[in-house]
Structures are given as structure tokens and as C-alpha cells.
TrEMBL record:
Protein name, entry field: FAD-binding oxidoreductase
Superkingdom classification of source: Bacteria
The entry's keywords: FAD, Flavoprotein
Keyword Ubl conjugation: no
PANTHER family according to UniProt: D-ARABINONO-1,4-LACTONE OXIDASE, L-GULONOLACTONE OXIDASE
Pfam families reported for this sequence: FAD_binding_4
Sequence ranges assigned to domain FAD-binding PCMH-type in this UniProt record: 13-179
InterPro entries per the UniProt record, alphabetical: FAD-bd_PCMH (IPR016166), FAD-bd_PCMH-like_sf (IPR036318), FAD-bd_PCMH_sub2 (IPR016169), FAD_lactone_oxidase-like (IPR010031), Oxid_FAD_bind_N (IPR006094)
């Protein structure tokens, strides 16, 4: 039997689904399944409902994870969509190549990285994931269709960041970047406040740069944090320790206000005022939370929301106002990130724009939902946008306004999937397949 009824969630564990899931292992079986309908899903690392299809079918791509071909001279690799980005990094970094863009988790599949046009800690230098995709093979109702930046260009653009609505992503050819080895030379600096944090991000010339921000600090310390800069390097480190796991849902007090403020203060002070340099494994730098399997259980059985937006460079003051509102609410977790982004984006619905992006996690509470609704409005007023890979609460009108090419994307998605068999809970919630 191909289909099995399962219960599943997004990474935030707030939004849930139940439906028929199939897990093909071969291309022919995948093609047959697409005739029966249902969107493709990977490891479901999107936080909200982007990969959910309640009461419907879905195709689990995680067994479609083979490397089809690799050119050691050019760094071009062709893979099935279910392989994870972490696997590619681990396999090819020792051979002198690494994926050009790595998101915050190595468990994201290549298909998922394309569907969300993910960005990494080097977006200001390298752009988004889709800008390094040389070709993508889609299955549309059993038929293979290939799109590239030069062939089926409109379909290619609609697929990059297109949340899986133009066809099931089956294969992709990626252009990786040369790397000297599989370690990172990392420098950390304290940022005492918002202005210092922004100035460090603006001044960075490092290949990779990211800021951890204390989203509970207020007053003169608002925006304090740690800015990490890193470069790929060659070296040897001891064998990595086995990942730990969170065996059960944490109690509600585990991320209470006093606990989070105490943790943040300690984490901030771990970097001396003079700064700190170290050598890290690539996965320790790119995927720090992957060392704790099922870390989303730390938020308890009710789960959590992540709010992530980006605003133009000129709206940095508006973003500071949002952080002030977050800090005053006392709802944020220790997981908060601030980055400067470049203008690279590959598709109509790609998230990035040149500016600053803020990502903050909140335990799922009524007060958090109210706060996120307020932050959505503030983002719209600042001419920014929200990240669909993280969203669980946005309104459709706001999202469509934030993505001015939405109409072009929706027209191509409807042409590619006229029966709307690829729709998900997110596309229905936000009305994304509707151009009106």
C-alpha cells in the first residue's frame, strides 16, 4: 500500500495535520504518485504549515536522497531532492567543495531549500540558494519538466521560493563553491547595544556573518548581543560528539521570563569584552542547534512560533522599534538572530531583500500571537516582508502586499497545477493561489 495515514506537524509543533503520506524510493514510483496528487514534503523544518496538508495527501521525499552526478573540476552536483544540505556539506567539504548557501539546519532537504529559496549567514556576499541552482526537474502530474535560468525561465523563477506549487521537485543541479577544508575560523565580538550591533554587521568584510541578539535586554542594553564572523579554513579537529536529544516535552517554566533573561545574560558574558577567536567544525558554525535533536520540544507540548522579517536598510529605526516592543513584552526565547542581507533573490516569492532580518522565537501563548500580529503590521508599515518558511500566523492580504510579484507567481502556479493538487494548509490559509 503506497499511502499511510499519519499525524504530523511543522517544526514549531503548533499547527498539525493528519493525512495520507507516501514515501517513494524510485523516480518511476514518484511519477506515479504525482498523478494521484499531493504536495511534496521533506523533513518538515518549515516552522508553520508550509509543509502540511491536513485531510489530504502528501509525498515524503526523504528516501529520494541519491547523488546522481558530481563534477570534481567544476563543483556541479546533481542530486535527488530528498538529500539534506548537511549531507552535501559533510560529503563534499573534505573534497574541496561546499554548498554555496547553507541555512540554519543541516536537516533541510535540497527540495525544501529550493521551495523556500533559503538564505544563510553569507547572504550579503553570496545571495540566496536558488541563485546557485543550475537546473531543477519537476514532476507535474507524472510528466518530467526541466527548468533552468535560461530554459523555461518563468517556471524556474516561480519554483525558486515557490513553496512547492509548480510541481514536485524531483532533482536539482547545484553549483557548489570551492572551500579549503571543513573547518571554520570564527571571531566573536560583543555588541553592547543596538547601534553597536548594527555597526558591526555593516562593517563586516567576512565571508559569513551573523548576530545573536538578546531579545530580552531593554533600555541602554537594547539590542545587545554577539556578532560572529567566520571564514572557511583547512584543519583537523577531534571527532564530533554524538548529538544529544530532548526526550520529552519540557515543562512550561523551562522558558519562563526569568530563566530566559538569566540564560541570555550568561551567554552574552561568555564572550569577553576583547572578543574571542576559535576554530569550529562547519556543522557547529552553520547548524549549531542540530547538536540537540528534537530541540523544539524545549518549548513544551504547545509548541512555539518564530517571527522572522526583513526590512530595507533605510528602515533600521523601525526594526529597532520592533525589538523594543519584543523586549518589553518579555516573551522571547534565547533564540534570536539579527543579520544584514544583500539583495540576492531567485524567485517571485523569495524572502530576501537588501536590509536587516530579525528572527525571534516565542513559546505559543495568546500574548505571543497578539504580539506577532502587531509586528506584522509594523513590518508592513516599514515596507518589509515576512518569511514564509517561518510563518504560522500571517494574514493573506499582508503577505500578498509584501510580495509584489505574487500575481505573476500565482498565474504560473495555476498553469503548472491546474487541479490545485499541490496546495498546502499555508497556501489555503493565506489564499496564495488566488490573485485577487
Amino acid at each position: 500500500m503506497s499511502w499511510k495515514i499519519i499525524d504530523y506537524t511543522g517544526w514549531g509543533r503548533v499547527l498539525r495535520a493528519s493525512g495520507a503520506m507516501a514515501r517513494p524510493e524510485r523516480a518511476r514510483k514518484l511519477a506515479d504518485l504525482t498523478k494521484e496528487g499531493g504536495p511534496a514534503v521533506g523533513n518538515r523544518r518549515s516552522y508553520g504549515d508550509a509543509s502540511l496538508n491536513n485531510d489530504g495527501r502528501a509525498i515524503d521525499m526523504t528516501r529520494m536522497n541519491r547523488i546522481i552526478g558530481f563534477d570534481a573540476e567544476t563543483g556541479q552536483v546533481t542530486v535527488e531532492a530528498g538529500i539534506t544540505i548537511g549531507e552535501l556539506a559533510h560529503i563534499f567539504a573534505p573534497q574541496g567543495w561546499i554548498p554555496a548557501v547553507l541555512p540554519g539546519t543541516g536537516f533541510a532537504t535540497v527540495g525544501g531549500c529550493i521551495a523556500q529559496d533559503v538564505h544563510g549567514k553569507n547572504h550579503h556576499n553570496t545571495g540566496s540558494f536558488g541563485q546557485h541552482v543550475l537546473s531543477v526537474t519537476l514532476i507535474q502530474n507524472g510528466k518530467r519538466v526541466v527548468a533552468t535560468p535560461k530554459k523555461n525561465v518563468a517556471l524556474f523563477r516561480a519554483t525558486m521560493g515557490g513553496i512547492g506549487q509548480t510541481g514536485v521537485i524531483a532533482e536539482a543541479t547545484l553549483q557548489m563553491k570551492p572551500c579549503p577544508g571543513d573547518v571554520m575560523m570564527v571571531t566573536e565580538q560583543r555588541a553592547e547595544n543596538w547601534e553597536r550591533h548594527i555597526s558591526l554587521l555593516d562593517a563586516s568584510t567576512a565571508e559569513y556573518c551573523v548576530g545573536w541578539i538578546d531579545a530580552t535586554a531593554q533600555g541602554a542594553a537594547l539590542g545587545r548581543g554577539i556578532v560572529e564572523e567566520a571564514e572557511l579554513a583547512k584543519g583537523l579537529l577531534p571527532k564530533a560528539k554524538s548529538p544529544r536529544s530532548v526526550p520529552r516535552d519540557a515543562p512550561n517554566w523551562a522558558l519562563s521570563g526569568p530563566v530566559v533573561r538569566g540564560f541570555n545574560a550568561t551567554y552574552y558574558r561568555r564572550v569577553p569584552t576583547s572578543g574571542k577567536s576559535s576554530v569550529k567544525r562547519i556543522d557547529d558554525f552553520f547548524f549549531p542547534l542540530d547538536k540537540i535533536h528534537d530541540w523544539n520540544r524545549l518549548y513544551g507540548k504547545r509548541g512555539f512560533y518564530q517571527f522572522q522579517n526583513v526590512v530595507p536598510l533605510s528602515e533600521v529605526g523601525a526594526l529597532k522599534g520592533m525589538l523594543d516592543r519584543i523586549a518589553g513584552a518579555g516573551l522571547a526565547s534565547p533564540l534570536a538572530v539579527l543579520k544584514r542581507m544583500g539583495d540576492g533573490r531567485a524567485g517571485h516569492m523569495s524572502f530576501p531583500m537588501e536590509g536587516y532580518t530579525l528572527a525571534v522565537d516565542f513559546p505559543a501563548r495568546d500574548a505571543a500571537r497578539d504580539l506577532i500580529a502587531e509586528l506584522e503590521k509594523m513590518t508592513a508599515q516599514a515596507n518589509g516582508r515576512l518569511y514564509l518558511a517561518k510563518d504560522a500566523l500571517a494574514t493573506g492580504d499582508a503577505i500578498k502586499a509584501m510580495y509584489p510579484e505574487h500575481g505573476d507567481w500565482a498565474a504560473i502556479a495555476d498553469k503548472s497545477d491546474p487541479e490545485r493538487s499541490l496546495e498546502t494548509d499555508m497556501t489555503r490559509r493565506l489564499g496564495l493561489r488566488n490573485t485577487g
